[in-house]
Specification:
Blueprint lengths: L6 H11 L5 H12 L5 E2 L10 E3 L4 E6 L19 H24 L3 E6 H34 L1
Parallel strand pairs: 3-4
Antiparallel strand pairs: 1-2, 2-3
Helix pairs in contact: 2-4
Bound molecules: zinc ion.
Length: about 150
Amino acid sequence: MADRISKDRRSWNMSRIRGKDTKIEVQARKYLFQKGFRYRKNVRKLPGCPDIVLPKYKSVIFVNGCYWHRHPFCHLATTPKNNAAFWQDKFEKNVQRDERNYKALQEMGWNVIVIWECEIRTDMEAIMQRVIRELEEQYIQKSLNRETSEI
Ligand SMILES: [Zn+2]
């Protein structure tokens, strides 16, 4: 009966996908905080309301649930058997919305990092180390850009 969910109800459901602190988001933030990174969270002014925003590194991080955000080839990205077409359409819209947001952010000059739920669950250390390397690279890049624009 999912098709009969009212429009309001549906957008409410969708809004819950973003904007609420999930466990994996909190884990990723804690890790970064302990490593000395400072950030803002859920910045609504930015497209897609990124989970973690690091202005110093000109980077935003999305901590994506594999199910709602459709992690490709992931065992967590299942499709319900009932109303499969409805769900596929809904998921497809989620993916398209994500892609629009990432693109908009990139056009604003942000580096977009996506972390997946399953990566945090299986080896948080490995994925967060990769994120930190990327942040450091962005920081160097940002400083270089500043130097060249000052010449
Ligand atoms: Zn996954």
